[in-house]
User: What shape does this take?
Amino acid sequence: MNASTWDCRWVMSVLPHRYPMLLIDRVLEMEPKQRIVAIKNFTVNEEFFLGHFPGHPVVPGVLLVEAMAQAGGILLMHDDPDREKKLLLFMSIERARFRKPVVPGDQVRIEARVLRLKANHCKLAATAVVDGNVHAEAELLSTTVDRDAVR
Assistant: This one.
């Protein structure tokens, strides 16, 4: 499979997220279990801009972290034949930094790479980049669990 087929339909076949929480539009590059580059286009139509902040819309930092985590989820789960039975959950968020605001009209390039992968645990380093400038970064630790175990 090549990058031309990694569109939003393919993303939805890998991730369980749906509107309004699906925060990956397309995958541009991927080296399985190593690194991924994905994009999210933030438009003025995003509902959260109505309240964050009226007259000065800014993407909430927590949504940038979630977008980075979703890119990592694609990287880790895309080739798992049992992915429909699993969920990837946060264990920790470390070294999160928000350097510049992301605003309507920005295309965010999300880059994530595996720092450590062991059994069902993974640590990723991720950045959110707009026009070549890092706007946010974090290290994300996740675990894979059976969906039936989550309640």
About this structure: Residues 3-149 form a domain with the Thiol Ester Dehydrase; Chain A fold (CATH 3.10.129.10). The mean pLDDT is 95. The beta strands are 26-31, 35-41, 86-98, 107-118, 121-130, 133-146.
